[in-house]
Amino acid sequence: MLKLLYAPTSPYVRKVMVCAHLAGVADQIQWLDSAANPVRRDDRIAVYNPLAKVPTLILADGQALYDSRVICEYLAHLGGNADLFPAAGPRRWVALAQQALGDGLLDAALLARYERTARPAEYQWSVWREAQLVKVDACLVEIERQIEPPTATLPTQAPTIGDVTLGCALGYLDFRFPELDWRASHPRATQWEAAFRKLPAMQATLPHEA
Predict the structure, then answer these.
(1) Pick from 37, 38, 4: nearest CA to 20
(2) Rounded to an integer, what distance in angstroms lies between the CA atom of residue 26 and that of residue 48?
């Protein structure tokens, strides 16, 4: 049995669990409670991951895997899903680049959120937070550019790790940054996300407060 140190609100945990569902191995994962925090280390995580971050996957032999990129590829391999991480070729590099784009959006969004939620009010730096949101907006512009025209087939069949990461990133904006109203100026991304969100793997992993 695999064990996953997790937080129910983490978009990176969601990314891992979406891959687990797509690879058919979600029922092989036991969820372990943790309290990941950017300031206060949780020893339950740190004993396996020196960064004390989630997700952290513990294998049957005790070996730990992190971060989400490594865990997702491991789960895809474990379940024999060759679509998530395509073999060498153009499709693979597109998928990996989209994963980097989605992860970059999430990194910036999390830093913007931590500035308000983890830093004492007297030390908060609004210029820093706005700079992170500029990165979020730039990622949204690039996602919109990359989305195929509306007549194209939406990636609800054989999604790649790029699709999964972008879907989780856009879902995180809905969850934590509804005031950004990203759909208002990104119609192609809106249509893409609405279709992708209907996948059972996405519906089974919707974020929620603990």
Answers:
(1) 4
(2) 21
pLDDT tens per residue across span 154-192? 566 899 999 999 999 999 999 999 999 999 999 999 999
Torsion of CA 30, 49, 82, 194, to 10 degrees: 70
Model-level pTM?
0.95
Position 88, amino acid: A
Give the span between the Cα atoms of 166 and 145, in whole angstroms: 13
149: confidence class by pLDDT, cuts 50, 70, 90 = low
First to last CA, the chain: 24
- Residue 161, Cβ neighbours under 10 Å: how many? 27
Report d(CA 30, CA 58) in Å as an integer.
Answer: 10
